[in-house]
Amino acid sequence: MEVESALEGLLATFPELKLHAGKGVVVCSLSHHEMPGRAEVVRAYVDGKKFRTLKAEKDFDFGRLQPYIIPSRKRKRQLFCALTNRYMNRKPAEVELHLKGKRYRRALDNYNAGRLSLFEERFGKKWPAGNTAAVGNKEEEMEGERKEEGNDRDEEEKEEISELPPVSTMKSRRVVHHGVRRKGVELSRCSGPPTKRRQLHAVSGLKHNRAKHEL
C-alpha cells in the first residue's frame, strides 16, 4: 500500500505520466517511454536528464518570443531568429542565452528604431530583397574578403621571387628538349607557382641564346 501511495503521488505531480492499470506500466507522454509501475523506477526516470529536458521544453513558452523567434520551416527541430538571421536548437537554455546576447539586443534596438526589418527564412542562396541593410553589409564583407585574398596572393608572389637565386649562381648543363641538345638551366618540368615558372623560363631563354653565340 505504501508503494501505491508513492506512485500515486508521482503521477499527481507529473501529469505527463499515465498509469496503464491493465498492463501495470507507466507511460510518459513526452518520450513515449514505458516503465514498470513501481515508484522507485518512476522516480529514477523523472530525476533523469532526458525527462527534465523534455519537460523544460514543454513548459517553456516559445510563443511569447514571436514574431522575433519562430519555429523554423526549413529545420523542423530548430527555431529561427528573424532579427539576427540565426538558427538555434529548440532548447530553453539555448534560447535564453541568445536573448541575452549582444547581437540580439543590438538587432532589437535597430528594429525598434526602424533601421532594420525582419529577416525572412530563406531556402536558397539569395538574401531577402526587403532587407537592403543586410544585403549591403554582406556585400561589403565579401568585398573585404576578396581584397584580403588578393593581398595575400601578391605577398606570396613577392616571396617566391625573392627566394630565387641570382642568374649567375644558377648551374648550367647540357639538356635535351624535344630531340635538340642545348645549354640551359635544369628544370623539373617547370614545377612551382606561375610566377616562378615564368622567371625560370626567362633565365633558360637567356642561357640558350648565349649558347647559340658560343657555337
TrEMBL record:
Sequence ranges of Basic residues compositional bias: 171-182
One Pfam family recorded for the sequence: SURF2
Region span, Disordered: 129-215
Sequence ranges of Acidic residues compositional bias: 151-162
Coiled coil segments of this chain: none
InterPro entries linked: Surf2
Protein name in the entry: Surfeit locus protein 2
Species of origin: Geodia barretti
